[in-house]
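As a warm-up, study this chain.
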Amino acid sequence: FLQPGDTIFVPASEMVYLTGAVAGPGAYPLKRDMTVSEVLAMAGGVNAMGSSSKFGLKRGDAKEVDVDGSEKLKAGDVIRVRERLF
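Now compare it with the structure written out below.
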C-alpha cells in the first residue's frame, strides 16, 4: 500500500522507430511481442506511395534486411516502409 510521501518511479518505455512511406512516421512504444504490422497500424498505415508488404528492418549496427509484417520487434528497431512500384 502507498503511504503519504511515497514516490513511484516508472521507467521510460522502450521504443521502435518507423520511417519511410507511412502515414505517421516516428517513435512508438514497444509492446510485448509487437510485430511490424502492429506498429504500422499504430502509425495509421502506409501512405499513398507505400507498399503494405515491403519493409526493411535495421537492428543495431547490422545492415537493413527485408522482413514481412509478422516480424517481431525488439527495442531500438528501425522499420522502413518502402515505396511501391507503379
